[in-house]
Amino acid sequence: MLSFSAQEYPYPSQRSLVYARRGMVATSQPLAAQAGLDILKRGGNAIDAAIATAAALTVVEPTGCGIGGDAFALVWTQGRLHGLDASGQAPRALNIEAVRGAGHSRMPLHGWTPVTVPGCPAGWAELSRRFGRLPFAELLAPAIELARDGFPLSPVIASLWQSGLDKFRAALPEHPELHAWFAEFLIDGRAPRAGELFSNPAQADTLQALAESQCESFYRGALARRIAAHAESGGGYLREDDLAGYQPRWVEPISLNYRGYDVWEIPPSGQGLVALMALNILKGFDFSERDSPDTWHRQLEAMKLAYADGRAYIGQPDCMRVSVADLLSDEYAARRRALIGERALEPQPGKPRAGGTVYLATADGEGNMVSFIQSNYHGFGSGVVVPGTGIALQNRGAEFSLDPQHVNCLQPGKKTFHTIIPGFLSQGGVALGPFGVMGAYMQPQGHVQMVMNLVDFGLNPQAALDAPRWQWLGDKRIGIEHGAPRSLAAVLTRRGHHVEVAHDLSSYGRGQIILRDTASGVLCGGTEPRTDAQIAAW
């Protein structure tokens, strides 16, 4: 059984393990967590709470998500797990020739070119329609109040806001379309400071329009017309028909049984498959100690091999040349595992048989649980804001390849390889709970570490999040957090890894975990010590 004890990891943390019976919301911002808990107390279920929390996060943490981003969810209700893919596709007018014709040799990070159709609002509405209990308008009310009346910035978000400003200032000479961001997300031309009140009345009006129309206005109404008109006037590719034709998709989650526990992820084009491939390699080893050189070396080597395959083979499902089943086969995992020796590898894809994000977790007293993630991709996203709306548009299209032979090559109407992934654990058909670690390419790496911390090393949710993390950075480069035992860096270096000890932990992911005790029904939650996170419990 997974640990619900107060066992701690010997790593400095200000967080305590949290227990509750009737409901729990875990996320990176206290005000957003409280918004979700208030919905639970008003009679909403875990799905309602997730939507309210997600909407509030677009206000209080715009450095990682927004109305103009994408979302994914894993929802446990009525005895089974459901997957929602609320990611958007490339506009129909966007293609490789247009990008190259504009002078780009690769997809840019800022401006109109990387903007894809936002799926986030449609995801909220779809979750509410299928599984919600309270009226949709009630779920967005806390976010509207925060945007209109203002909220005090938390310390980490203030730092990320300044970082976003610095990047956009550097990009502005080449991207004048970023001017609206400067008008709507600054105070007197500067980033808001920690503890300072920031309000966004334009975003409040947009959220109100979404609340009243169940997000129809964003895709087939007044907001859609404003978005498309701004794109057309500014040289963007997004049009009304791109928005009008968008619908989120219910998908079958994919899973791997890891030492008796089922680990669940969203299927491609998400990178959750990378986490499952790494775990499939690792389950062939025995691990007796978390912080030993053998453990970290094998974890890193398995992660490198899984990522090499993920980057080579994962894309929009109908474009993939290799099936999920083949990539997760025991035979293929054994072949990849056999490559792991004593020395660090240069990762290369194998040959299988052909065939700045926010994360939140919610649970209620009835057994419903949600693992939810949404993102504008890099920080605030593309830097493009629709004037007078507070809608910051994502830059997810930056992930597309301009190589026509690549599985993830840019095509009109195509979805790109996606980094944001929610996770979920179950055992024997019984839900244990949601988990996730936000942070671009850190996400599957964080998932692997969370699962192993819980399953292999018996850590409780808070201890699993407190423990120092590793990160593969490309080639033989690896990062380890400064809280890891110093001896690890020396041994890993001797094994051929190029080790970087990190004191800035902002790139090592920010996670949440909620588990339910199958006997008592008690909820047990952990939250990220590397950010301003909180668990709201009832």
Task: Explain what this protein looks like in three dimensions.
The chain is α+β, with helices and mostly antiparallel strands and 538 residues long. It has one domain (1-274, 357-538): 4-Layer Sandwich (Glutamine Phosphoribosylpyrophosphate, subunit 1, domain 1). Helix content is 36%, strand content 19%. It has 18 helices and 21 strands. The chain has helices spanning 30-41, 46-60, 96-101, 120-131, 136-149, 155-171, 179-184, 201-213, 216-220, 222-234, 240-244, 272-282, 293-313, 324-327, 330-337, 442-455, 461-466, 486-494; strands at 18-20, 23-27, 70-77, 80-86, 151-152, 197-198, 249-251, 254-258, 261-265, 358-364, 369-375, 385-386, 391-392, 423-427, 430-438, 470-474, 477-481, 498-502, 510-516, 523-527, 534-537. It has a seven-stranded antiparallel beta sheet. Strands 7-4-3-11-10-2-21 form a seven-stranded antiparallel beta sheet. Strands 16-17-18 form a three-stranded mixed beta sheet. Strand 16 and strand 17 (477-481) form a beta hairpin. The longest helix has 21 residues, at 293-313. It is globular and about 60 Å long. The two termini are 24 Å apart. GO terms for molecular function: hydrolase activity. InterPro entries: GGT-like_enzyme, GGT_lsub, GGT_ssub_C, Ntn_hydrolases_N. Pfam families: G_glu_transpept. Keywords: Hydrolase. This is Gamma-glutamyltranspeptidase / glutathione hydrolase.
List the helices and strands and how they pair.
Elements: E1 18-20, E2 23-27, H1 30-41, H2 46-60, E3 70-77, E4 80-86, H3 96-101, H4 120-131, H5 136-149, E5 151-152, H6 155-171, H7 179-184, E6 197-198, H8 201-213, H9 216-220, H10 222-234, H11 240-244, E7 249-251, E8 254-258, E9 261-265, H12 272-282, H13 293-313, H14 324-327, H15 330-337, E10 358-364, E11 369-375, E12 385-386, E13 391-392, E14 423-427, E15 430-438, H16 442-455, H17 461-466, E16 470-474, E17 477-481, H18 486-494, E18 498-502, E19 510-516, E20 523-527, E21 534-537
Parallel strand pairs: 17-18
Antiparallel strand pairs: 1-20, 2-10, 2-21, 3-4, 3-11, 4-7, 5-6, 8-9, 9-14, 10-11, 12-13, 14-15, 15-19, 16-17, 19-20
Helix pairs in contact: 1-2, 2-4, 2-5, 5-8, 12-13, 12-15, 12-16
Protein name: Gamma-glutamyltranspeptidase / glutathione hydrolase
GO molecular function: hydrolase activity
InterPro entries: GGT-like_enzyme (IPR052896), GGT_lsub (IPR043138), GGT_ssub_C (IPR043137), Ntn_hydrolases_N (IPR029055)
